[in-house]
Write a structure and sequence with these properties.
The structure holds two protein chains of two kinds.
Chain A: H1 2-28, H2 35-68, H3 74-110, H4 113-150, H5 156-167, E1 171-176, E2 181-186, H6 198-206, E3 209-215, E4 219-228, E5 238-245, H7 248-269, H8 271-319, H9 334-376, E6 380-385, E7 390-393, H10 395-402, H11 413-418, H12 424-436, E8 444-452, E9 455-466, E10 473-480, H13 482-522, H14 528-559, E11 567-569, H15 571-579, E12 588-592, E13 599-601, H16 603-620, E14 629-636, E15 639-646, H17 653-656, H18 674-684, E16 688-693, E17 699-706
Parallel strand pairs in A: 12-14
Antiparallel strand pairs in A: 1-2, 1-5, 3-4, 4-5, 6-7, 6-10, 8-9, 9-10, 11-13, 14-15, 15-17, 16-17
Helix pairs in contact in A: 1-2, 1-8, 2-3, 2-8, 3-8, 4-5, 4-7, 8-9, 13-14, 15-16, 16-18
Chain B: H1 2-27, E1 30-42, E2 45-54, H2 58-65, E3 70-80, E4 88-102, E5 107-111, E6 117-120, H3 123-130, E7 132-139, E8 147-155, H4 162-166, E9 175-177, E10 180-183
Parallel strand pairs in B: 1-9
Antiparallel strand pairs in B: 1-2, 2-7, 3-4, 3-8, 4-5, 5-6, 8-10
The chains are: A alpha+beta, B alpha+beta.
């Protein structure tokens, strides 16, 4: 498009120049080109000017549209076009105005007063000469006419010939009123005179009438018509015609003066037209030059601005991150060097960005990897700075400190801890460590026994200072090892229970049998008093052995290896079945959701759990005035929730955290293994058991068991 | 391609505008009125005589007095009129007559269509003379039914001095008669 415009303007300029040369030639040499050719040339020039105006109009419209659309480089192009156009218009206009003034004055100077006076003088001189010659021929003619008028008819020819010869007249012819030749006398032999105009004869019949005639443009003659007044009144009216050539020297001079005078007069008359044509030609030259320069200014401006626009576009693309934008190299000038440098810079930037992107991806991958690891860690990880502001933490840390997965970033450690009672010792330790170990970069770890949600938790804290030059940061690794320690304790208790059961159970039966045998053998042989003592003692032994057996059985139950026989059971039916045993007490109230799902569990074990819990509640309700046990069976998503509440004396804060451990009990009697066994059974079913105090009085046990057929 | 389409539209518009301007200028001419047309017959030869009203105003008189010759062109056409097909020009005759001032002799020289020369001392006499065209001789064929004589008189601008010829802005020199049509 731009190339086409360039060629179009160049072609237009060449054609315009050619036309202008022809136009100038046409004006300078009028014979060279006809008025029609001049008209065509003029029309073509105007046509080209109009075409250029149209072309420029289109260009201006397109440029303004580009400016309106804020296309890169359009404003610069507009500014350059205006500058170039102004640079062209001002000098050309000045030259034009000076030229017009000069031209007008030059044309006016052609018509000098002196030249005109000289020409008029020359013409007048010629006229006077001819007038003198005419007066001379008039005198001679009148004399001849008088002589012939007074002569007899037969003497006319002689008199005419004599007088013509005497006066040196070339031809003398007598006509009558009907243009008939009466007499002829001539220097030339055998002259057949041409018949004059009737009008000339008529005028000559009235009075003297002279005129000048040209023959073939070479020679001029004086022709005089004189009326012949005859003495015979009755005779026809005759007219004498005299023809006398003007001497060639005079005639040529007179004719040449007349010719020049005519030309001068024509030129004088045409000077306004001349001015108009010259000014028109000059105006066309001006317009062609101006419009060509304006049209060219578009091409040049675009040539200048297009690399800059491309650079601006490319810069914008690069700022958006597109480094693929390569500008085609243009020329070897400064702009070309700039584009070359820009392309080089772009490729370097692209390479650097690619490298940076790769590094970033690697970092991102490592960070994601680290975050994934941290997220899946059950151990809480927190990074804090010197001001104890949390910079980083994983999900486990949030759960541990806030009981939820909300973000802790940029929060003060103290604010997070304050929301979570029980963790104050942890915070105090951290604060002390940071104050005490500002310079010392020693790694420390500490175990804490904390109470959270009425349960004792064992927390392991490890603090590692990071070697960051700018900011001192610390990595806190918080590990809740409660379950591990609990499992360890359960394991230890299991071992104890197993050994106890094994070591104690074996001698019990011989002891019981021995006591019964003693009673049986010696009861009848002793006196009554001794017999009573014996009986009481052996009964005590047997009772205590039975008690020991129960205890040993419970230990054995607690220590037994996990062996459960799961089956599909309906827990609501199982509870109904169990509470029938306690129906007489009428203290148990059961509420259950509809369509309680089947669970896959060991029916006997679950029954034992329910019985143990009901028994515990009953023990807790011994002193209660309005004893009440409430059982809720709730249908949850993929599980069944069993809640057992009583309004008994409840469990004290001291033991509630360890209530599932053996020998931890608030009861005066009992082995303290009931809840431990319950806990063990629920764990064996992959369930969850929680025990909590009810605000005023009483205890609530919540058991969650997975629903489903397997 | 689109660019050339746009350009061609502009060029055509300009061309049409120029044509309209040209027509407008052509319409502003000094009219010559042809009247009293008489055709005399002598065997197959016809002699055309007519008079004209030529508006020779002050600038033209001034031009004549400045030695500028005025040459008028008379075009005579014998046209066969055809109802369906285009009319056919059977014959065409062009004659000139002129008026010119001779400064040396201070006379207005007239040369009529037949080449006869007349001289007048006064311009009005000369103008009167050129207003009458006499004995324009032309021949016709025997069977001249449906034939017409078309007559047109105009000032021959090509015979004017070049500066006046090319001064298209001066409408003084555009003198033309309407087409005068006569049945033969």
């Amino acid at each position: 498009m731009k190339i086409k415009l360039k060629y179009l303007i160049t072609t237009a300029a060449f054609i315009g120049i050619a036309l202008l040369i022809l136009l100038a030639k046409a004006i300078s040499n009028s014979d060279l080109i006809s008025s029609d050719s001049f008209r065509i040339l003029l029309g073509l020039n105007i046509f080209f000017i109009c075409s250029l105006i149209g072309l420029i109009g289109v260009q201006i419209f397109q440029l303004l549209q580009s400016v309106k659309k804020e296309i890169t480089g359009s404003r610069l192009t507009l500014r350059l076009v205006l500058s170039f156009a102004l640079m062209g218009i001002v000098p050309v206009l000045i030259v034009y105005l000076v030229s017009v003034n000069f031209l007008t004055k030059s044309i006016e100077s052609w018509f000098d007063v002196k030249v005109e006076s000289a020409l008029e003088g020359g013409l007048t001189l010629g006229q006077k000469t001819i007038d003198i010659l005419m007066s001379d021929i008039e005198l001679k003619g009148k004399s001849i006419a008088y002589s012939i008028g007074n002569a007899e008819v037969d003497q006319r020819n002689n008199i005419l010939t004599d007088l013509r010869a005497k006066f040196g007249i070339q031809d003398a012819v007598i006509f009558d009123q009907d243009s008939l030749i009466i007499e002829v006398s001539s220097e030339r032999n055998n002259l057949i005179p041409p018949i004059p105009n009737i009008e000339d004869l008529e005028r000559g019949s009235r009075d003297f009438f002279g005129k000048i005639e040209e023959t073939n443009g070479e020679q001029i003659f004086l022709k005089a018509f004189i009326p012949i007044i005859s003495k015979n009144v009755m005779s026809k009216k005759l007219i004498l015609q005299l023809t006398q050539p003007i001497p060639p020297s005079i005639a040529n001079l007179a004719l040449s003066v007349e010719s020049v005078y005519d030309e001068y007069q024509q030129l004088t008359y045409s000077r306004n037209s001349l001015k108009i044509i010259y000014i028109l030609t000059l105006t066309l030259v001006l317009l062609l030059a101006l419009l060509s320069s304006v049209a060219a200014s578009f091409v040049i401006s675009r040539k200048f601005s297009s690399p800059l626009a491309m650079l601006a576009d490319a810069t914008r693309e690069i700022s958006k991150g597109n480094y693929k934008k390569i500008i085609s190299e243009q020329g070897k000038d400064e702009l070309g060097i700039l584009i070359k440098s820009f392309n080089s810079m772009t490729s370097q930037l692209e390479q650097a960005t690619k490298n940076s992107e790769k590094d970033r991806e690697r970092l991102e991958l490592a960070r994601t990897f680290l975050e994934t690891i941290l997220a899946h860690l059950t151990t809480g990880v927190i990074v804090i700075d010197e001001k104890k502001i949390i910079r980083l933490n994983n999900v486990s840390a949030s759960k541990m400190l806030q009981n939820k997965e909300s973000k802790m970033n940029n929060k003060l450690m103290s604010a997070v801890i304050s929301d979570n009672k029980g963790f104050e010792p942890l915070y105090e330790f951290i604060s002390t460590y940071i104050v005490d170990n500002k310079e010392n970069k020693k790694e420390v770890s500490q175990e804490f026994k904390l109470y959270k949600d009425n349960r004792e938790r064992t927390i392991m804290l490890q603090i590692t200072p990071l070697n960051d030059k700018k900011n001192k940061t610390y990595v806190l690794v918080i590990d809740d090892i409660s379950e591990v320690t609990e499992a360890q304790r359960h394991s230890a208790w299991g071992e104890i229970a197993r050994r106890l059961a094994h070591e104690i159970k074996n001698p019990l039966t011989p002891i019981q049998l021995s006591a019964e045998r003693i009673q049986h053998k010696f009861g009848n042989k002793l006196n009554k008093e001794d017999a009573i003592i014996l009986e009481r003692s052996t009964n005590t032994i047997v009772n205590q052995v039975n008690s020991l057996k129960i205890m040993v059985n419970e230990f054995a139950e607690y220590a037994r290896p996990p062996k459960i026989q799961k089956d599909q059971i309906r827990i609501d039916n199982l509870i109904d079945e169990v509470i029938e045993l306690y129906e007489i007490d009428k203290i148990i109230d059961v509420k259950k959701d509809k369509n309680i799902p089947i669970i896959y569990a060991d029916q006997n074990k679950i029954r034992q759990v329910i019985i143990n819990l009901i028994e515990n509640s009953k023990d807790a309700l011994k002193d209660s005035k309005k004893p009440k046990i409430r059982i809720f069976i709730k249908k949850k998503v993929n599980e069944v929730e069993l809640i057992l509440e009583d309004n008994g004396i409840g469990i004290s804060d001291e033991i509630i955290g360890r209530i599932f451990e053996p020998y931890v009990t608030s009861k005066k009697t009992g082995t303290g293994l009931g809840l431990a066994i319950v806990h063990k059974i629920i764990e064996e079913h992959n369930g969850d058991i929680k025990i909590e105090r009810i605000r005023n009085s009483g205890t609530r046990v919540i058991i969650k068991l997975k629903s489903g057929r397997r | 391609m689109l660019f050339f389409k746009k350009i061609s539209v502009i060029i055509i518009t300009i061309f049409v505008a120029l044509l309209i301007i040209d027509r407008f200028y052509q319409s502003e001419v000094n009219e010559i009125l042809i009247k009293d047309v008489v055709i005399n017959a002598k065997e197959n030869i016809r002699y055309l005589n007519f008079k004209q009203e030529i508006n020779i105003d002050s600038p033209i008189r001034k031009a004549i007095n400045n030695g500028i010759p005025l040459v008028f062109k008379v075009i005579l056409k014998i046209v066969k009129i055809n109802d369906i097909l285009p009319n056919k020009t059977v014959s065409k005759e062009i004659r000139y007559y002129q008026i010119e001032y001779k400064a040396l002799r201070k006379v207005y020289k007239i040369k009529d269509i037949n080449g006869k020369k007349y001289e007048y001392k006064h311009i009005d006499e000369a103008i009167k003379k050129i207003s009458t065209v006499e004995d324009f001789e032309f021949s016709i064929i025997d069977n001249h039914i449906n034939h017409e004589l078309w007559l047109n008189v105009s000032l021959e601008r090509k015979k004017l001095p070049k500066p006046l010829q090319v001064n298209y802005f001066d409408r003084t020199w555009y003198m033309n008669s309407n087409k005068s049509i006569h049945k033969l």
